[in-house]
Design brief:
With about 325 residues, the protein is of the alpha/beta class. It has a single domain, classed as Alpha-Beta Barrel (TIM Barrel). The chain is built from eleven helices and 13 strands. The protein is globular and about 50 Å long. About 50% of the residues are buried. The mean pLDDT is about 95. Belongs to the metallo-dependent hydrolases superfamily. Phosphotriesterase family.
Length: about 325
């Protein structure tokens, strides 16, 4: 398996012995949506690093993927500070979010040149420290079909992924449009096992989940704990249905912390809700520790490294 590119450099997957949070935000700015709480900046570094450090000590948290990309307030230098302060490896991302957050560069640039922008960041790094992204995402759309601008970004993301070997994670608003997203990405030559379709725990549609998994994509249940969007009881039912259908190897689990009020230091459920609250319910439902390790460690590592079923299953301890 290829190394995982973190903010501190390449990391061997065999060194990741604990769980991975594959869809989180450690630094972002989404204030254009009118929500002043949608900011995680340098002032939150002590709270976030402290929380991740506790999760490392208690649950073995080994790796966090920050899916904050261009136009979302990405700050790779802050990610480096959080990683160093917590002892938890962090992956940065590149790409563009949904159309409401597209900067002017997207509106005036074709998909080929957008792909070139991502490839340059992946190869040469970004920010003052030239930190290299280890993921393309979260590439976003709102609705059953991406808008024209969003479709250009999906096309660019697929091209950049094919050229660099990185995988692509998506933002599907309320879980809608995942099949269309997957079709756009695979239609440009990207293998489905290098795609993770986001926010599927917000879509109460087990048939769609099975279709995505059957195509070979990862199905992200990545807003766990966000009760304002969905109750965890529904998430548990949807997860168990996917496991019963035989698709444990296509599940990713995370919490998508994206507001300062989500931080445990501010009274929120925090980055550890998955480990403290949700996974005990999964175990109580009869899911084994081996399957939980598959969903929380082996699957995200296979996704990040682009490993297929034939070459990723036995390469991890």
């Amino acid at each position: 398996m290829r190394p995982v590119q973190t903010v501190a450099g390449p990391l061997s997957p065999s060194a990741v012995r604990g769980p991975v949070l594959p869809h989180e935000h450690l630094a972002l700015d989404l204030r254009r949506a009118g929500n002043r709480e949608a900011v995680l900046d340098g002032s939150h570094v002590p709270d976030i690093a402290g929380e991740l450090s506790l999760l490392r000590e208690r649950f073995g948290l080994s790796l966090v993927v920050d899916q904050t990309c261009r136009g979302m307030g990405r700050d790779t230098a802050t990610l480096g500070r959080i990683s160093a302060g917590s002892g938890v490896a962090v992956v940065a991302a590149t790409g563009w979010y949904c159309e409401a957050f597209h900067p002017p560069e997207v509106r005036r640039t074709d998909s080929g040149r957008l792909a070139d922008v991502m490839v340059r960041e992946i190869v040469d790094g970004t920010g003052p420290l030239r930190i290299r992204p280890g993921l393309i995402g979260e590439i976003g759309s709102h609705g059953e079909q991406p808008s024209g601008a969003e479709a250009r970004v999906f096309t660019a993301a697929a091209r950049a992924a094919v050229r660099t070997g990185l995988s692509v994670a998506t933002h599907a608003r309320l879980g809608a449009g995942g099949l269309a997203q997957l079709g756009l990405l695979t239609g440009r030559g990207l293998a489905p096992h290098r795609v993770a379709i986001g926010h599927q725990d917000l879509l109460d549609d087990p048939v769609t989940h099975r279709r995505l998994a059957a195509e070979g994509a990862y199905v992200s249940f990545d807003t766990i704990g966000k009760s304002g969007y969905q109750d965890d009881t529904v998430r548990l039912r949807l997860l168990l249905a996917l496991l019963d259908a035989g698709y444990a190897g296509r599940v990713l689990l995370s919490c998508d912390v994206s507001r300062r009020t989500h931080l445990s230091a501010r009274g929120g459920t925090g980055y550890g809700h998955l480990f403290r609250t949700f996974l005990p319910r999964v175990r109580a439902a009869g899911v084994t520790d081996a399957v939980i390790d598959l969903m929380t460690r082996r699957n995200p590592l296979r996704f990040l490294t682009g490993a297929g079923d034939e070459d990723g299953a036995d390469a991890l301890p």
